[in-house]
TrEMBL record:
The active site is at residue 73. GO terms for biological process: amino acid biosynthetic process; aromatic amino acid family biosynthetic process; chorismate biosynthetic process; shikimate metabolic process. This is Shikimate dehydrogenase (NADP(+)). NADP(+) binds at residues 133-137, 234, 257. The lineage of its organism: Bacteria, Bacillati, Bacillota, Bacilli, Lactobacillales. Its EC number is 1.1.1.25. Homodimer. CDD domains: NAD_bind_Shikimate_DH. Belongs to the shikimate dehydrogenase family.
């Protein structure tokens, strides 16, 4: 039975620009109803110049908290009272929790990835992995993997202006977490071959494989894949990228980013409510919504 809105109903939501396309309202409102939490979740188009006031509204309206998406993930850091370890290392947040007026900033993307790997039977703690890309999603995954105990991470990115900016951040993450993190040029095929040969997991955190690049692969040579190298692609639409098809052809485990999307939401839900999101109920709904 759906929860009835009452005088005690609390609000959670998404601050983004644009925000109306998000799957989060469906995920969280369904989860609130299934777990008996008296709350609703709405999407809000928040202009950058109004972000500070909008975050203050979390306190003023006694909201459970919010999710943040582009373009607010980095700017929102300055408006919260405290940061989780991962959020501090990354310098970005996607979730704010309201603890009696004290706002705590978290980043749950990396948690979502690590939980999806676990649910798919991919064991990477204490081992080595290779990740393609060093942008926002990649940095969240790298940071959480390092915090959780992945031993070594080889990061490959195009050697552009961003490459120089991310290098010191990765060095800082490595120093604090005692994880070996090395940044390499994606064009260095010899290094890529050596890294993959020593890795127990390959992650694609680039947008190559997503529309309009659905026929492209982020890996220059599919022969670098092997049967005992699981492949995780953060992309979930299309459900099977060219990289995942190539991995499956070698007999390797191939996992798309739907689980990461689901479990990053579940992590935020637990932070707000203390309850587990009913992911088995929500996953099919999410799959159907993505297809529309």
């Amino acid at each position: 039975m759906e929860n009835e809105i009452s005088g005690r109903t609390r609000l959670a939501g998404l601050y983004a620009l644009p925000a109306r396309h998000s799957f989060s309202p469906m995920m969280h409102t369904t989860a609130f109803q299934a777990t008996g939490v008296d709350a609703v979740y709405l999407s809000f188009d928040v202009q950058p110049e109004r972000l500070g006031q909008s975050i203050q509204a979390i306190r003023d309206l006694d909201m459970l908290g919010i999710n943040l998406s582009m373009p607010h993930k980095m700017e929102a850091v300055k408006y919260v009272d405290e940061l989780s370890q991962a959020a501090r290392l990354i310098g970005a947040i996607n979730t704010i929790v309201n603890q009696n007026g004290k706002l705590i900033g978290h980043i749950t993307d990396g948690i979502g990835c690590m939980e999806s790997l676990k649910q798919n039977g991919i064991k990477i703690i204490g081992k080595r992995m290779t990740i393609l890309g060093a942008g926002g999603a990649a940095t969240a995954i790298i940071t959480q993997a390092a915090i959780d105990g992945v031993e070594a991470i080889d990061v490959f990115n195009i050697k552009d202006d961003f490459y120089q900016k991310i290098e010191p951040k990765l060095a800082m993450i490595a120093e604090e977490t005692h994880c070996q993190i090395q940044l390499h040029d994606l064009a260095d095929e010899k290094q890529l071959s050596e890294s993959l040969a020593a890795s127990n997991l390959l992650i694609n955190a680039t947008n190559i494989g997503m529309a309009p690049k659905t026929e492209q692969m982020p890996l220059p040579d599919p022969s670098l894949l092997r049967k005992d190298l699981p492949v995780f692609d953060v992309i979930y639409h299309p459900a099977e990228t060219q990289l995942l098809k190539a991995a499956k052809a070698t007999g390797a485990k191939a996992v798309n980013g739907l689980g990461m999307l689901l479990y990053q939401g579940a992590a935020a839900f637990k932070l707000w409510t203390g309850k587990e999101m009913p992911v088995k109920q929500i996953q099919p709904l999410l799959e159907e919504t993505i297809k529309k």
